[in-house]
Amino acid sequence: MVNLEWYRTFKAIYKTGTLTGAADALFISQPGVSLHLSSLEAYVGYKLFDRTGRKMIPTERGKVLFNAVFEPLAKLEDVEKNFQKSTEKLTPTISVGMCFETFQTTLEQYVSTLPFNLIICFGEYPEMLDQLDKGILDLIITPKKGVSPNILHEAFSSEQIILVGGKYIDTESFKKVVKKGTEHAEEWLKQEKWYGTTGDMEHLFQFWILNFRHKPNFRPNYIVPNLNSIIRCLKGGTGLAVVPDFLCRNEIESGEIKLIWEGEKKLKNTLYFGCRKNTNYPTEIDHIKGLFRQVMK
């Protein structure tokens, strides 16, 4: 059965001439517009638009279909307006990209209070920068700046990558070893049990290269889904991991886990907000930025 939203999307593309324009008019994502159009084309069995550059030019069959559905859609929209509250407005939908751990530690607690719709996307930073540039995402939280002239980056906080461990780790023994030199510290660390994640091990690699001048030549003993899982596992009392400090600040202060070493050289990353220069949602994006500043001040 055909979905009436496909026709609404078809009409918006026809009127605006672009997928982006239709997405803005309907307050949905551009991938959502593309999905509606491809579904409708598959249903009717022919192309409705020719894609020339960024413009969507209706085919002859597309023009025929538009003339057939325009009046019925207009009547349905009039009915909708008459039956909805006069004060009701379309609620915008904001798509935000960040890593899973950052979401859990910062924005997750505020989602139910947001006065707009929210879609959270997780992924690798290069992928999120590309999706932001293409208009799929409206805002990203990233430690890496892109090169696109269409994207604005605003530094708002920083993270330090630190070595942490369970509360039963013998930190005094490690302090004595560190004083003998980094080569002794490395050997001591390699004898302990290590936690890693199923995703990339970039934090561990960066920390190791900075302090020992090469990548770690061992594999973690325990691979868990994400960095927050590591923090919870370390509360059991043993093991080591390299993680951003903001993820475990409370656990260190409460004594549930220990700060083992900041490194001979401290590894710090600047965190940026990334958004397009010409965003349609400045108020909503500023709202989310304010929540991040509040949590990470």
TrEMBL record:
MF annotations from Gene Ontology: DNA-binding transcription factor activity; transcription cis-regulatory region binding
Domain called HTH lysR-type: residue spans: 2-59
Origin species: Chryseobacterium defluvii
InterPro entries assigned to the protein according to its UniProt record, in alphabetical order: LysR_HTH_N (IPR000847), LysR_subst-bd (IPR005119), WH-like_DNA-bd_sf (IPR036388), WH_DNA-bd_sf (IPR036390)
Domain of life: Bacteria
Family: Belongs to the LysR transcriptional regulatory family.
Transmembrane regions: none
Keywords: DNA-binding, Transcription, Transcription regulation
PANTHER family per record: HTH-TYPE TRANSCRIPTIONAL REGULATOR (PTHR30126), HTH-TYPE TRANSCRIPTIONAL REGULATOR GLTR (PTHR30126:SF40)
Descriptive protein name: DNA-binding transcriptional LysR family regulator
